[in-house]
Amino acid sequence: MRPQTSSRPPWILILTAVVVLLLGIALSVLGVKLVTLGGSLHYVVFGLGLIAVAALLYAQRQSAVSLYAVMLVLTTVWALYEVGLDFWQLLPRLDVWFALGIWLALPFIRRPLRATSAPYPAASLALGLVFPLVVALVSLPRESTTIEGHLARGLDAVLPTAALGPGGLPAGEWHAYGGTPFGQRYSPLDQITAQNVGHLKKAWEFHTGDLPGPEDPVEITNQVTPLKIGDTLYVCTPHSIVIAVDATTGKEQWRFDPKIQSANGTFKKWEHMTCRGVSYHNDADYAASSTAPAAAATTSMASTPATTATDCPRRLFLPTADARLIALNADNGQICPSFGDKGTIQLLTDNLDGNMLPGGYYSTSPPAITRDLVIIGGHVSDNYSTHEASGVIRAFDVHDGHLVWNWDAGNPDETTPLPAGQHYTRNSPNVWSVMSVDERLGLVYLPMGNQTPDTWGGDRTAGAEKYAAGVVALDIATGKVRWNYQFTHHDLWDKDVSAQPTLVDLKTPSGVQPALISTSKQGSIYVLNRLTGQPIIPIDEVPVAQGAVQGDHTSPTQARSQLNYDPPKLTEADMWGTTPFDQVMCRIRFKSMRYDGPYTPPGVTETLIHPGNAGVFDWGGISVDPVRQIAFTNPNSFAFVFRLVPAAEVARREASTNESSGVHPDTGAPYGVEISPLLSALGIPCQAPPWGWVSAVDLTTGKIIWKHKNGTTRDSAPFGIPLPLGVPGQGGTLITAGGIAFFGATLDSYLRAYDVTDGRQLWSSRLPAGGQATPMSFKGKDGRQYIVIMAGGHGSLGTKMGDSVMAYALPAP
Q1: In this predicted model, what pLDDT tens digit does every residue of 359-391 receive, in sequence order?
Q2: What angle do CA 105, 111, 115 make, to 5 degrees?
Q3: How would you classify the pairing of strands 733-736 and 703-709?
Q4: CA neighbor of 636 nearest in space, from 653, 626, 621, 648
Q5: Residue 119: pLDDT band by 50, 70, 90 thresholds?
Q6: What is the pLDDT of residues 746-778, one digit of tens each?
Q7: 590: enclosing H helix or E strand
Q8: 664 pairs with which residues across the strands?
Q9: Best CA proximity match to 232, nearest among 334, 316, 289, 312
Q10: CB 700 within 8 Å of CB 508
Q11: What is the pLDDT of residues 539-584, one digit of tens each?
Q12: Could you give the 3-state DSSP secondary structure of residue 665?
């Protein structure tokens, strides 16, 4: 016979009832708010159920447990209906309620409860707990965004005569940012294979000594891809220091410090500080070449023939953070006095005036190099004003540094060097990323940014409307436009082309075509004929959301490649969190914002932008195996929130705080803008994972072969919990002839190796700092193939900062 319980509930039961009551009230209130916005009824219903359970617990009724068991089963069914067997989506819907069910099953909670006509509580609660547990276990290995596949032709060559680029580059070298001027990020070395990559070990680690200081901006980054020329590796640091290192031993040979200066003696107010690399020119390489570039037949803008410099036949070109271009002797690091003014060209000239922040104009990326020219663009501050420096592209003689031509999207037809007293077009679209060069065709390819401000375009110029956010092909000799293709029309979302275009001779149904492959922040991979600019893989103009703010407009359509990683449109069910409470708050925020798909125009209320301005693909681009005709990619998907702030409100904020209070001012425009990632109140992404993948594309078919989530939360979650969610990565990839691809730019500090045929991760190594850079490969003096990456972190991404150049190789025989 069951013992009688006292009339007064024990304190533990009272406490439990109070907690359940508070949970129910909170969930009901949040649920009502969600329902008023047109969202799910579930949270209201479950909240009211919790209130009923609390009342029954206080009344010491066994039916409280039975009722809760039914609620737990129905909630699991609802969760399955919303997200299917997706463990990481099911987790925030069920975790707190499963834990509460365990608590209610404990003997000291059940014993004081009086019997009722309800089913036996222990059995019903056991069923209620077992059901979500089984669902969770079944869903754990499943991932809805994964594409399983295998390169059907294995690693057999498709185009064995594929060109790696001009100049006959030796297989063990890396002479340009992307390996060659073609930007393929491909190594023809095949010593490292799927069979032995697991034996890779650290060969050496070199410390540059350039660490962030108290006067540096938050966004100080180490994004350099080293060059390997002969027996030397060349790196640059965020403070524009160039260091030569023995490629096989990691021993320093020399360093050059340009002693960069800011306008006010501090770097703290700079937007960012980085150096992605230096460029290399060797007179002997071109003297030995028997094939003159196609552009040689055209009329050169250089009125005086270039004189070959004898002081630096092998020279490096360094773009500095204080807007200089310096030529260095590659053998000893000494300045080349024959170039410019005693080795230096000042890029901030009188005809490039603008309303700029300190560091508001400089070249973050290495310039393009041709037989006779060094061609350079520049970063211009985003969303600062409508009167910033011009985005002009300038071509200087590679030997003496005189200006040969200039191309300004605001005055695109006049490329003759600008006379003294005249000015380039303020605020014209710029090129801040890396250009590519095909000297055989006589073309240089520009990945174009947009005209600032990024999020308001009411006064965009004709040049911006035509040339921004696309690729422009210029004649190397004259700077004249040969063709252009715009990927984002009237860009209001910061969809500048941020990655170097990749050039490859591509096998197509109509024969081998000279192709250009350009990735985009929106997710499309655009494949064009690099001679004509015509699409090889079809590009569709698709209707998009309308409704820009007064004084602006939107394009009715946008260009979407049929080869794309466009993320699906977000829904309320895609909102995430760690518990049902931050998840419902994310759902409320989602329903409160305007969101009509990927091109929703920003407005004065919060607007969801997905993918966000960090993009599906950013400056890292992709790597391409020109022989096997495959691409290795690292797509991301992360939503941001934009809100246009009226200029009067921006002025009030700046006047009251002497700062912009997180608002990009866009001085001269009717609106500033607030931009932030879509996060919960706990700082957790509102958008469900995964947020980052690795993937491969068969370029002969234009189809995705495989796609796997990539990376863990080890360096971003509390207590270093390495949840395998798939995290964003900002940096580039490497692909090798051995059938191995490398990537190290995820938010967790690892360099990883993958089998390109099926995407299996074969090896990883913990990095001493964030690897937000692009790995490269070369052959050392000892005959071994080396993999090198800069592990220096990224200030604004929050990865660990450092100064390590890491080199890996197979054990010496």
Answers
A1: 789 999 999 999 999 999 999 988 888 888 899
A2: 100
A3: unpaired
A4: 621
A5: low
A6: 999 999 999 999 999 999 999 999 999 999 999
A7: helix 580-592
A8: 673
A9: 316
A10: yes
A11: 999 999 999 999 999 999 999 999 999 999 999 999 999 999 999 9
A12: coil
Question: Where residue 607 falls among pLDDT bands split at 50, 70, 90?
Answer: very high
If one counts every other C-beta atom within 10 angstroms of the C-beta of residue 403, the result is 17
Per-residue pLDDT tens over the stretch 314-360 = 999 999 999 999 999 999 999 999 999 999 999 988 788 766 677 78
Radius of gyration, CA atoms only, the chain:
29
* Contact yes or no for 479/300 (Cβ under 8 A): no
Tell me the three-class secondary structure of 697-740, residue by residue: EECCCCEEEEEEECCCCCCCCHHHCCCCCCCCECCCEEEECCCE
Per the structure block, which two tokens stand in for 357?
């922040």
Six-digit token pair at 27? 């969930």
| DSSP for 131-148, written as a single string | HHHHHHHHHTT--TT-B-
CA 47 from centroid of its chain's CA atoms: 40
Give the active site residues: 494
Entry field: residues in the chain: 813
Half-sphere exposure (CA, 13 Å, Cβ side) for 687? 23
Inter-CA distances, 243 with 129, 280, 316, Å: 61, 14, 11
Q: Where do the H-state alpha helices sit in 211-281?
A: none
Instruction: List Cβ neighbours of 732 (8 Å cut-off, separation of 6 or more).
Output: 185, 225, 619, 620, 621, 622, 623, 745, 773, 774, 775
Kindly give the pairing relationship between strand 186-187 and strand 733-736.
parallel
Residue entry with tokens 């078919």: 701
Q: What is the DSSP string of 389-409?
A: ----EEEEETTT--EEEEEBT
Residue pair 619/433 in contact (Cβ under 8 Å)? The answer is yes
Contact residues for 442 (Cβ-Cβ < 8 A; gap 6+): 293, 294, 295, 296, 298, 475, 476, 477
Q: How far apart are CA 730 and CA 498, in angstroms?
A: 12
Classify residue 471 by its DSSP letter: E
Share of the chain above pLDDT 70, in %: 93
Question: For residue 149, what are its two tokens?
Answer: 């596949």
> Which two structure tokens, joined as six digits, stand for 283?
């007179």
Residue type, 454: D
The pair of structure tokens assigned to 277 is: 């690399």
Cβ-contact 434, 500 below 8 angstroms: yes
